[in-house]
Structures are given as C-alpha cells and as structure tokens.
Design brief:
Blueprint (H helix, E strand, L loop, with lengths): L3 E5 L5 E5 L10 H4 L6 E5 L15 H15 L6 E5 L1 H12 L6 E5 L9 H11 L6 H10 L4 H11 L4 H12 L13 E7 L4 H5 L1 H7 L5 E7 L6 H4 L1 H13 L8 E3 L27
Parallel strand pairs: 2-3, 2-4, 4-5, 5-6, 6-7
Antiparallel strand pairs: 1-3, 7-8
Helix pairs in contact: 2-3, 4-7, 5-6
Length: 286
C-alpha cells in the first residue's frame, strides 16, 4: 500500500492530492494546512518519499495502487482529485479508469498534446533521468521556478528520496504519452491550469486539453500570470484559494486568466484575458 497522510475536516469533501515527479506529498503541506474545511488525502506515489520502496512501473499500475490504497484507507475513492505535473498525468489515468466517479478534478502542469521530438526527449531522459533527484538538478529547477527559500529547501530535501530508475521510467512514459487521449468519457467538473512561465508546450496546448474533456459537467482552463510549474509552492495562499473555490463550486480567484477551449490551433494560441462574464462559479457545490 502507498504511504498516505489524511487530515483536515472529517465531515468535509475528500480531496486526493497527487504530487509531481522527484518530490513527495510534502509538496502539498503548505497548501492543505490552509484548507481546514476539506479532508485532505496526501499520497507518496511509487518511487517517491515513504513509498520509494515500491518501484514506479507505469501510470496504470500507479492508478491501480491508488485505488487499492484509497479503498484500504477511506473505504472508497475520494470525491475530488488534484494533481500537479506527474500527479496530473496520474490523476488523468485515475479519472479514465473511473470516468463517472469523481465530482471534480484539477490538473495543473501537464501538456495537452504529445511532446515534439519525442526521440530526443527520450534520449535526454535516459541520460539524466537517474539524476533527477540530484542536488545539482533540483537546485537548478528550484531557481528556475523562483521558489522562496523555505520551499526551495523542502523541494530539494524531498527530491533525495526519489528512486533513480523509477524517475527514468516515469519520465520516459510521459515522453511517449498522448495526454488528451481517452479523456472524453470523464464526467467530473474540470479545472485545467498552467503557470504562464511554464514550458511553452504546456501553456500553448491548454486550450486543446480543455476541449478534449467532452463529457465533463463543466470545463475551465486558466493561466496563472507570472507563475511557474510549481506555483502552489510559490504561492500557497493563492493555491488554497483556487483549490477551495473549485472543490466547493465557488467563484474562482480573479488572479486566474481564463483561456478558451481550442478556438484556434494550439500552436498559435496566445494567452489573453478572460471576458468578465466568465468569472462564474466553477460548478455546483459537492
């Protein structure tokens, strides 16, 4: 069973938080402590943190392990799921396996289309994937993402527990992935996010990803101006506000810059402001 932390309101909606690659569930601590009204479920995924003795093999295997862990811990699957980066790809696989179960999902920091020049990315992954948790690479990543000093230290410390061969596996799997494939049957209320300073492919393919959730009860996509891939670590107050609003179906914070769902090819998409009448509740309260 995967290592799990559960805290918050026993009577609140249950939210599963899935962390990014080469970090741990500790990523969410600064955010979830600001969300006392929900029941937060934090999990260390295979190859990470206190679950690093369980090797990462695939997204499907991880989704299955999450289901088994949730049934053992909660007696059921959670009502909501929030995933960042690797956690977003994993959450998508969990949603595809249970397309009508979840009330809402929030995915941030994932591409909406396959990566270009996948062969080159795979070669890079094979060369450096095993060093994803090294102090050098995590230090460079932390500086590039402009993390505050306390978050930077936590980020680098968490990375130490990452199992190197597992990192190669999940990086290689994501390189070959078509993230939007098969999501058309998911009925959850969806919120798709990206920091405006993230990788160009993540930002530009956001409208395409939003348009792919054809059965979702509602879909919203937005940028977070001036923020990077690990924006919840940069701005935990804003992250808690966004997450709470989405889970409870309330008006989303005005800091979000909404984008349309694929009104133009993703390659030519340019971020722009959201018409005023789109600042509306993200859906009914759970």
């Amino acid at each position: 069973m995967l290592h799990t932390y559960t805290f918050g309101s026993a009577d609140g909606p249950t939210v599963l938080f899935l962390h990014g690659g080469a970090t741990t569930s500790n990523l969410w601590r600064r955010v979830t402590e600001r969300m006392p009204e929900v029941r937060s479920v934090l999990v260390d995924m295979p190859g990470h943190g206190h679950s690093n003795h369980i090797r990462w093999t695939s997204l499907d295997d991880t989704a299955l392990r999450l289901e088994e862990t949730m049934h053992a811990t909660l007696g059921r699957l959670p009502d909501h799921v929030i995933g960042l980066s690797l956690g977003a790809y994993t959450a998508t696989r969990l949603l595809k396996r249970n397309p009508t179960h979840f009330k809402s999902a929030l995915l941030t920091g994932m591409t909406g289309k396959p990566m270009p020049r996948a062969w080159l990315m795979k070669l890079f992954t094979l060369l450096v994937g095993g060093f994803a948790s090294s102090r050098l690479l995590t230090g460079i990543s932390a500086r590039m993402m402009e993390l505050p000093d306390d978050a930077k230290r936590a980020f680098m410390e968490d990375a130490k527990s990452t199992h190197g061969p597992s990192a190669r596996r999940f990086l290689s799997e994501i390189v070959d992935l078509d993230p939007a494939a098969g999501v058309g049957e998911i009925t959850a209320r969806m919120l798709l996010l990206s920091g405006s300073k993230e990788d160009k492919l993540i930002v530009s393919s956001l409208p395409h990803l939003a348009a792919s959730f054809k059965s979702a009860s509602s879909v919203q996509a937005a940028l977070l101006p001036g923020l990077h891939h690990a924006w919840p670590l940069q701005t935990p107050d804003l992250a808690a506000s966004v997450f709470n609003a989405h889970v409870f179906g309330k008006v989303l914070p005005e800091e979000l810059e909404f984008v349309p769902a694929a009104p133009e090819p993703a390659e030519t998409f340019k971020p722009r402001g959201q018409p005023e009448n789109r600042f509306a509740p993200s859906g009914p309260a759970p």
